[in-house]
Amino acid sequence: MKELTQKTQVTLLEAMIDGSKVGTIVTDPSQKDNPIIYTNKTFIDMTGYTQQEVIGRNCRFLQGPDTAKEDIGKMKKAIANEEKIMLTLLNYRKDGSPFWNRLAIEPVRIEDKLYFIGTQTDITLERAQQQAIMANESEIEKLMLPILSVQENVATVALVGTMNFQRFETLKVKICEYVQEHRIEHAIIDITGLSWNEKSPLYWFTQIYDALRIMGSKLYVTGISPAAAQQFANDLERDSRLTTFSTIEKALNFITLQSGGKNISVD
Ligand SMILES: Cc1cc2nc3c(=O)[nH]c(=O)nc-3n(C[C@H](O)[C@H](O)[C@H](O)COP(=O)(O)O)c2cc1C
C-alpha cells in the first residue's frame, strides 16, 4: 500500500477536523494566560469570531453575564491540575447571543510539551427540545389524575383538561408502564373532565387499547357525555373494539360480572 506523504496526512486531518460538527481549539499553557494557538473552522462558525480575533487570546472571551461562576472555577482547577474536564456552560457569540456549549478540555503532552485541546458542541437546540419535553410532561402530570388500582387487577385514570396528540402519546406510555408493573388486567380511562382539540380522540383510545391488548389487558372508556357519545357513535360504527360506559361504576360492574363468567348487556 502506498504511504501518504506527511503533507497529505496533515491536509486530510485538517479537512476532517474542519468538516466536523464539533468546534476544536488548542491552547499553549507555556505562553502567558494559556492562549489559543489553533482553531478549526467549526469553532469560528459557532462563535462568529474570525481566526485573527481569537488566536493569541484566552478562551474566556466566550463567557458573559450568565455564565456560571462555578463552571469557570471548575475549569480553572482542572487546568491547573492538568486534568480532563467535561461540562456544559453558557457562552456568548460575538453578536452577544448566548449558546449552550458542551465543552471538553483535555491535557495532551507532545514531545514533553503540554497543550490543552478543547472541543465545543453547540447543544442549544437539543437543550430547548429537552426542556419543551419536560414542560410537556409536567403538563401531562397536571392533566392526569393519578392512576389508581380500584380493585385487584383493575386500574382507573381520570383525564381532565385538554388533550392533544403529545399528551395522548405520554398517556399511552404511562398506562402501559403502570399496567405492566401492577399486573393490571382491566384499565378504565374516565373522560368526564376531558376536552380535546383533535376531531375525535377515539383514534388515540384505540391505540392505547391495542397497546394494552398486546400486554393481555383490556381498556374501557367511561364518562362519555351525550355530545361526545354522538361523536363517538359515528367512529365506533367504523371501529367497535372499544367498550364504553357512562360511568366508572358501570364499567366496574361489567368487569366484576365478566370475571364471574356471566353474560350481561352493556349500557
Ligand atoms: C483548551 C481549552 C478550551 C477552553 N474552551 C472554553 C470554552 O469554549 N468556553 C469557555 O467559557 N471557557 C473555555 N475555556 C476555559 C477558559 O479559557 C479559562 O480557562 C477559564 O475561564 C478558567 O480560567 P479563569 O478563571 O482564569 O478565567 C477553555 C480552556 C482551555 C484550556
Automatic annotation (TrEMBL):
Boundaries of every PAS domain copy: 9-82
Annotated ranges, domain PAC: 83-135
Record's protein name: PAS domain S-box-containing protein
Key word Nucleotide-binding present: no
Record's keyword terms, sorted: Chromophore, Flavoprotein, FMN
The species this protein was found in: Planomicrobium stackebrandtii
Record bears the keyword Flavoprotein: yes
Family annotation (InterPro entries): PAC, PAS, PAS-assoc_C, PAS-like_dom_sf, STAS_dom, STAS_dom_sf
Record-annotated STAS domain positions: 144-255
Species classification: Bacteria, Bacillati, Bacillota, Bacilli, Bacillales
One Pfam family, short name: STAS
Source organism superkingdom: Bacteria
